[in-house]
Amino acid sequence: xxxxxxxxxxxxxxxxxxxxxxxxxxxxxxxxxxxxxxxxxxxxxxxxxxxxxxxxxxxxxxxxxxxxxxxxx
Length: 73
What we know:
The protein is an all-alpha fold. The chain has one domain (2-72). 73% of the residues lie in helices and 0% in strands. It contains three helices and no strands. The protein has helices at residues 2-23, 28-32, 47-72. Helix 1 runs antiparallel to helix 3 (47-72). The radius of gyration is 15 Å and the shape is elongated.
């Protein structure tokens, strides 16, 4: 059981990294670290909104799996 949880955490963490990197591609290097404040207040539409919601979902799954792994040990 521990192996399955560990494997799931690894897969979800890789997915989370990929999704986060896909979000910051268009904003440049300084935007990835908070230097670009103009993109904070604009409305997300289409694929950008779907990607944003998917990122939140994958983040929640990662946190839940991490809590389960900590309790199971």
